[in-house]
Write a structure and sequence with these properties.
Elements (H helix, E strand, L loop, with lengths): L7 H13 L11 H18 L5 H21 L10 H22 L7 H25 L10 H10 L1 H36 L1 H15 L3 H12 L3 H23 L5 H9 L4 H36 L8 H10 L3 H29 L9
Helix pairs in contact: 1-2, 1-4, 2-3, 2-4, 3-4, 4-5, 6-14, 7-8, 7-10, 7-12, 8-10, 9-10, 9-12, 10-12, 12-14, 13-14
Amino acid sequence: MNMIKPNWQAVLAAIALLAGLAFLPLTSNASAPMTGIILALTAAAIALSCMTLPRPAGVWSLAILPHLAVYMLIGTLAGAEGSASLAFYAVLAACWLMAWRLVTILSGDGRKRGLVGQLVVPTLFGVWLLIIWEAVTRGAGIPFVILPPPSAIGVRIVSSIPILAADFQQTVLKAVLAGYIMGCASGFLVAVLADRFRFLANGLLPIGNLASALPMIGVAPVMVIWFGFNWESKAAVVVVMTFFPMLVNTLQGLKTAGHMERDLMATYNAGHWQTLVKLRLPAAMPFIFNALKINSTLALIGALVAEFFGTPIVGMGFRISTEVGRMNLDMVWAEIALAALVGSLFYGAIALLERATTFWHPSYRS
């Protein structure tokens, strides 16, 4: 039985590793023993990836060896930022290719889907984005005010938890949630009424197209003047941003019920509201959830932008605008990371609710 099964990631990684040997040392702080260990770990990962090992052994070898090598590689930059050589980037590229091979194995080349494919693989992608970010910013000596490394951002997050918690409460728990609920609920109710009374739809849809083209950077200052500097003005901006997507999507969804189903409801002597509740609203649920997911990101963006134009001395948008002026880029990125995390969790929660509610939809059939 042939024990050797080369793959293109291993071939490219081997080429990169061999080419990097001509440009040693890795950094000005890398000792010969440390360099040897890093090269040996990377070479072992490449060799094992070319062998027909049992799947668990292949997965664990690629999960440990290249990641340990890249951890030690970045460790050689301590006190030697900006001294990375071409050998440093060659080893980094080889480790990245081995991580790519790991993702390929875990993904089953697109044939398998499950918990591993949905959680572990995206996590590996995200981790390696941070690894490359850290290695390039520190290895190339990029100035801190231009792009701080993820390690510095992480330190800032840990040391600023009370500030981030207060900003989260002001922006998300007050402005975003209040505006999101009011905007989506009012858009849904108006859509139901517009479906019943066509003159409302004929009048509101052109206004909706106009409102969707309005720049929020122009609407936000007006809302601050109307509703004050506290969270109410930010919630008003969120209402404006979320109302019309919900209106348009709900109206479109209510049209998806087929004529055959409507005729069947008519034979049962069902009235308009009975048909709406029992047939047309369930058929419109994918469209409604699509609006909810779109609005989950629009709401956060609207609240952040509105805080640039006037707010109490707290809030995620306020913090970003003031810390940029102070050149505290690590704090700015900490707020950006918080906003990205909140937005992703918000979107994911709605997606899970959609899957539980519209499990019957063809898009969820395996």
